[in-house]
UniProtKB/TrEMBL annotation:
It comes from the Bacteria. Residues 19-29 have a biased composition (Basic residues). This is AAA-like domain-containing protein. Residues 17-54 are annotated as: Disordered. PANTHER family: SLR6007 PROTEIN (PTHR30121:SF6), UNCHARACTERIZED PROTEIN YJGR-RELATED (PTHR30121). Residues 37-54 have a biased composition (Basic and acidic residues).
Length: 496
């Protein structure tokens, strides 16, 4: 029995000791928490005392302003009765809810008519910031709305930022005076002039290309150019046999001549070599007969003297602006398209130089270009590669429905024309006629308010759609710019 009592005492003693220790720990924790609360209360009390002392030491103006001679020099308390309304109504009472703008980096355009602030735009800055993913611009507006002045302002005001401007074809000669004023070069082409361009020139060689790469690039560009010229004149696509005739003629001319020119290629197409390796069945002359006579128009027809010899001018990529003035050529859509094909090919080597810097390429009177598949394909290729080469293309035309006149509905040409609009995330729409509102709103995804706004826009006022954001701006011109850019001076009789 005694042994059992001892065993029980041994078992109970540790349990009682554990309970005692737990109680001690709880009392110690409660004591620490109480001390922490007391310290926090003391700090809060000291802070409140300091704030009260600061308020007592501060002198405040009375609610009704200063008394005596200083009366009315400080405003009194503003009292306004409470008002409750819907958010749709109150939104019109707070102008500070307008669009915040694109920032201050870039080219000054004018005034944002909604916010009243300055409107600044630069496609390269917006691309670097991720606001847009393509630097191309589409500009549309009826005659007299001010779209030409805006285009000229955008590219001339970009020159101080180190940008350059290329106009591969100026059908009306509007950019000639601008090019000369900024220290650039305007190359005037036309019958009776001494200026001649050889579209088969090697052109400006981009840095970083080996001799083999450069030879391959030049050969490919020459083949594409002659094929595009033939398609433009023939108004159809070339057959495989015609492509072969062009390729063989061009290869032989380049091999036999240091400076190949178009008359040599035309002669080789019409009278090809009869060597068995190049013409095994003796039908090469017949295969290229239509192409040869189509290209003969450039060397012996209505375009004789423009592209049928060595170039009389050199392309200088260091100039701030180069424009090809085609206003001396007879007003003919096909001729203008052929001219722009040759002139753009002459510029193409400099355009496709990744180290050429940031450049504007202006396609004025673009409806002429889009009516020819070969030109449209070249434009589409340039637009898709704009980011790689640092190019911002600007397409200028009168109305967006011009895109609907390109090819048949569902055709490849219509798809290419629509892709130009899709690859331009900056769309600027100046005043449009009422019958153009529906197609314009559909093409750009305009709201009902924006659609109704277009017919009422004044001169120099435009709706800017930059991705999903909208701005209504007033373009502002310096007097010197106005006298240089104004295209209505001749029609109105004002001195230019």
């Amino acid at each position: 029995m005694e042994r059992e009592r001892l065993h029980t005492a041994v078992l109970v003693a540790p349990a009682a000791e554990r309970r005692r220790l737990r109680k001690q720990r709880r009392r110690a924790a409660a004591r620490l928490q109480a001390e922490q609360r007391q310290a926090e209360k003391a700090r809060a009390r000291a802070k409140a005392e300091a704030e009260r002392a600061e308020r007592r030491a501060t002198t405040y103006l009375p609610a009704t302003g200063e008394p005596g001679p200083a009366a009315l020099r400080t405003p009194g308390r503003f009292r306004l009765a409470r008002h409750q309304d819907t958010s749709a109504t109150l939104a019109g009472a707070y102008p500070f809810l307008a669009e915040g703008g694109l920032g201050s980096d870039g080219v000054f355009v004018g005034q944002d008519l909604y916010s009243g602030g300055s409107f600044v735009y630069d496609p390269w800055v917006l691309y670097a910031r991720g606001v847009i993913t393509a630097p191309n611009v589409v500009l549309a507006g009826i005659v007299g709305s001010g779209k030409s002045s805006l285009a000229k302002s955008l590219y001339t005001r970009s020159l101080p930022f180190g940008r350059r401007v290329y106009v591969p074809g100026d059908p009306k000669g509007e950019h000639t005076a601008v090019a000369e004023a900024v220290g650039g070069q305007a190359i005037v082409l036309g019958h009776g002039l001494n200026t001649r361009l050889n579209p088969l020139d090697e052109g400006h060689r981009p840095s970083g290309l080996s001799d083999e790469q450069w030879a391959t690039t030049v050969a490919s560009r020459r083949r594409d150019l002659i094929g595009a010229l033939a398609e433009t004149v023939l108004a159809r696509s070339l057959s495989p046999l015609e492509h072969t005739a062009i390729d063989l003629a061009l290869t032989q001319v380049v091999r036999d001549n240091t400076v190949p020119i178009l008359p040599m290629v035309v002669d080789r197409i019409l009278t090809p070599s009869t060597h068995p390796t190049t013409d095994p069945d003796g039908r090469l002359a017949e295969d290229g007969r239509l192409v040869g006579h189509a290209l003969r128009r450039l060397v012996a027809g209505d375009l004789q003297g423009l592209f049928d010899g060595p170039s009389t001018v050199a392309f200088d990529p260091t100039l701030p602006m180069i424009s090809l003035d085609l206003s001396r050529v007879t007003e003919n859509s096909t001729l203008i398209s052929v001219l722009m094909t040759c002139s753009s090919a002459w510029m193409e080597a400099a355009l496709l130089d990744p180290n050429g810097g940031q450049r504007w390429v202006i396609y004025d009177e673009a409806w002429r270009l889009m009516s020819h598949p070969a030109l449209l394909r070249r434009m589409d290729a340039h637009w898709r590669l704009a980011r790689h080469y640092g190019i911002a293309n600007m397409l200028v035309f009168h109305k967006l429905t011009d895109l609907d006149n390109v090819g048949d509905s569902g055709s490849a040409m219509r798809s290419l024309a629509n892709s130009l609009l899709a690859n331009a995330e900056t769309r600027i729409v100046y005043r449009q006629e009422s019958d153009q509102l529906g197609p314009t709103a559909t093409a750009l995804g305009l709201t009902g308010t924006e659609q109704k706004l277009l017919p009422s826009l004044g001169v120099g006022q435009g709706l800017w759609r930059i991705k999903a954001r909208s701005f209504v701006t007033q373009h502002q011109l310096h007097p010197a710019e106005y006298s240089l850019f104004d295209t209505s001076a001749r029609a109105s009789g004002r001195p230019s």
